[in-house]
Design goal:
Layout: H1 3-10, H2 29-44, E1 48-51, E2 57-61, E3 69-75, H3 88-104, E4 112-117, H4 130-135, H5 141-146, H6 155-161, H7 173-177, E5 179-187, H8 192-196, E6 200-206, E7 209-217, E8 221-222, H9 234-252, E9 255-264, E10 270-271, E11 274-282, H10 286-306, E12 310-319, E13 322-323, H11 326-339, E14 349-352, H12 357-361, E15 367-372, H13 388-406
Parallel strand pairs: 3-4, 3-5, 5-15, 6-14
Antiparallel strand pairs: 1-2, 2-4, 6-13, 6-15, 7-11, 7-12, 8-10, 9-11
Helix pairs in contact: 1-3, 3-13, 9-10, 11-13
Bound molecules: glyoxylic acid and manganese (II) ion (2 copies).
């Protein structure tokens, strides 16, 4: 099946007709449909299909027990109203690259795997990269069992409802030990390739990043009858904190975003009792990130105090800086430069502020990423886009990389 046909098959799944964006949250119906699609792609190619103890899906050519496997893939879930490309491009390109290599008659000397990591975006349970974190031992079974969505449904309940056993969650070092290289292809989430005029680039590093929950607790009261001077309104300290986050990030060359908020009781005519805001912050270096978050928290405490509001700040997740494996990165650049018959071809090497399963795995496995040009740089939005000929260039680059790695 061509890249185009696979893409067209996946496109309607989980798409909101109102926004045109995707709502493929972990262990929902849309996610189940995406997973069924993955399995069908694996089986139609005669690949050995399996779901691992953490709900990640794998398709194997050759026997992974032989070790030193080359694995590629990404994720199929999305953020709320996400784009079509973030995640699915890497999975569809993986199958398309395998098809290309079979057409070329490539003979593999290493096992080849294609993976769909579960719950990469963390849109439902608040923690990103749940499938890869569990596998790499960066999230325990107990921590995972405590994850709860906005409707109070726990991760185990959601997994059970989708037919996946939550009791098996946990580290999978044997699986990781069998992987010699992991390469994730991803749509670029910025404009570096568009600006440099290149279709494909190689990742250098991922900024350290994390998520913090800010709970501002005040006093619910009548919006019409409570004098301004008598209010303990947590919305005010939250609003001031949003502005402080912007200032701190700007000063430090970092980013800081409050993109999700929950308000109680959430009535138009009631002063809130609780405003819960989630901060996502990222910076090129750890020290900078620490300083930015500390600055935001300090400002938030001062604002909370001035409004008679209580504040609790909880770090919900954190991913340290990722520097991708230099040897593998250089090998990718060499393969893309030489084996395509263009010695010296410039392959841009890019850093990114976006998180990826590849970043989680990089602590356990030599890992690399390929980026495909995104002409607007927009991501996590229905406007996310990559032109089909750039996607096909990505497939060919991935095929060259897999051929170079798995046929040596
Ligand atoms: C995932 O895409 C993230 O960077 O949050
Ligand atoms: Mn994403
Ligand atoms: Mn992604």
């Amino acid at each position: 099946m061509s890249f185009h046909s696979m893409w067209a098959e996946l496109l309607p799944i989980g798409r909101s007709s109102a926004s045109g964006g995707y709502r493929r949250f972990a262990w929902t119906g849309a996610d189940t449909d995406c997973r069924a699609w993955f399995r069908a792609q694996a089986e139609s190619r005669g690949l050995r299909y399996e779901t691992d103890r953490n709900g990640n899906q794998w398709a194997w050519l050759g026997d992974p027990a032989e070790g030193d496997a080359v694995v590629t893939g990404s994720h199929l879930d999305s953020v709320p109203d996400g784009g079509a490309f973030d995640g699915p491009l890497g999975v569809v390109s993986a199958f398309a690259a395998l098809d290309e290599l079979r057409t070329r008659g490539t003979r593999f000397t290493r096992p080849l795997g294609i993976v769909n990591f579960g719950d990469e975006e963390g849109a439902r349970f608040g923690l990103a990269c749940v499938g890869s974190r569990l596998t790499a031992g960066q999230l325990t079974r107990e921590q995972a069992h405590r994850l709860t969505d906005g409707d109070g449904i726990t991760l185990p309940q959601a997994m059970e409802a989708a037919g996946q056993d939550p009791d098996s969650l946990g580290p999978d070092p044997e699986r990781l030990a069998r992987i010699g290289a992991f390469v994730e292809l991803h749509v670029e989430q910025g404009r570096a390739l568009d600006l440099s005029g290149d279709r494909v680039g190689v990742a250098s590093a991922i900024w350290p990043h994390g998520r913090w929950r800010f709970d501002f607790r005040g006093e619910a009261n009548h919006a019409g009858t409570t004098r301004l001077a008598d209010r303990r309104d947590p919305m005010l300290s939250y609003a001031e904190t949003v502005l402080a986050a912007r200032r701190e990030a700007e000063r430090a060359g970092a980013v800081a975003t409050f993109g999700k908020i929950a308000v109680e009781p959430n009535g138009v005519n009631a002063i809130p009792s609780l405003v819960r805001g989630w901060l996502d912050s990222r910076a090129p270096e750890q020290d900078t990130l620490d300083a930015v978050v500390a600055g935001i928290e300090k400002a938030a405490r001062a604002y909370a105090e001035s409004h008679g509001v209580d504040l609790e700040v909880v770090r919900e997740s954190f991913t340290p800086v990722v520097e991708f494996d230099h040897a593998l990165r250089d090998e990718l650049a060499r393969i893309l430069g030489q084996e395509r018959g263009h010695p010296g071809l410039r392959v841009p090497v890019l850093g990114t502020g976006a998180g990826h399963d590849a970043g989680i795995l990089s602590g356990s496995v030599p890992t690399a990423m390929l980026f495909v040009r995104n002409p607007t740089g927009v991501s996590h939005s229905p406007a996310e886009f990559a032109a089909e000929d750039d996607c096909v260039a990505g497939v060919l680059a991935l095929a060259d990389v897999l051929e170079g790695l798995a046929c040596r």
